[in-house]
């Protein structure tokens, strides 16, 4: 290909996002740069800055993609959609499956999520995740209880990740049940 001619590459932006997620998974957020993402994606450095003007833009895209997993599982869950089903039990089971499926991926998602503490550009995306989770639970409960369930599941997930504790599904079911049945 002659110098200066661009090759059409419609998947390049997605490959850069995927590469950024892999870099953060391997080296943490501190290890992510346009250069490290470009090297991981095997694209020219200029491609990363073309698609993502700032590193925060790249982190926003990575966080948005990472957030899709659990919120989508909640939204798609037949057990959660059943109005007669055990909501606390279904959520506890789903959370256990999420934590067991790929712990490294869950750690990565939380690292990106918590990066919003220091990077204000990420805060709207973190808020979107909370909203999506709450919206998925609202058909089964009221909005305030849905937010409480999301907060409790976040807390339980962080405790498991930070303490290397084994996930305790029956205990989680009991805790979520108490949120659903106050008093």
Automatic annotation (TrEMBL):
Gene3D superfamilies: Tetracycline Repressor, domain 2. PANTHER family: HTH-TYPE TRANSCRIPTIONAL REGULATOR RUTR, TRANSCRIPTIONAL REGULATORY PROTEIN (PROBABLY DEOR-FAMILY)-RELATED. InterPro entries: Homeodomain-like_sf, HTH-type_TetR-like_transc_reg, HTH_TetR, Tet_transcr_reg_TetR-rel_C_sf, TetR_C_31. The keyword DNA-binding applies. This is TetR family transcriptional regulator. Residues 33-52 bind DNA. The keyword DNA-binding applies. Signal peptide: none annotated. It comes from the Bacteria. It holds the Pfam family TetR_C_31. It comes from Streptomyces caledonius. Residues 10-70 form the HTH tetR-type domain. Keywords: DNA-binding. The lineage of its organism: Bacteria, Bacillati, Actinomycetota, Actinomycetes, Kitasatosporales.
């Amino acid at each position: 290909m002659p110098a200066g001619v661009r090759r059409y590459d419609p998947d390049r932006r997605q490959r850069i996002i995927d590469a950024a997620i892999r870099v953060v998974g391997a080296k943490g957020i501190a290890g992510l740069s346009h250069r490290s993402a470009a090297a991981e994606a095997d694209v020219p450095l200029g491609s990363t800055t073309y698609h993502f003007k700032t590193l925060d833009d790249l982190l926003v895209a990575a966080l948005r993609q990472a957030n899709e997993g659990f919120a989508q599982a909640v939204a798609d869950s037949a057990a959660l959609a059943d109005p007669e089903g055990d909501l606390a039990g279904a959520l506890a089971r789903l959370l256990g499956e999420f934590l067991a499926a790929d712990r490294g991926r869950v750690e990565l998602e939380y690292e990106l999520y918590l990066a919003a503490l220091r990077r204000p550009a990420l805060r709207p995306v973190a808020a979107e995740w909370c909203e999506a989770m709450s919206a998925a639970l609202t058909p089964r409960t009221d909005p305030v209880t849905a937010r409480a369930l999301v907060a409790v599941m976040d807390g339980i997930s962080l405790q498991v990740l930070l303490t290397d504790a084994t996930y305790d599904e029956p205990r989680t079911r009991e805790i979520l049940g108490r949120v659903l049945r106050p008093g």
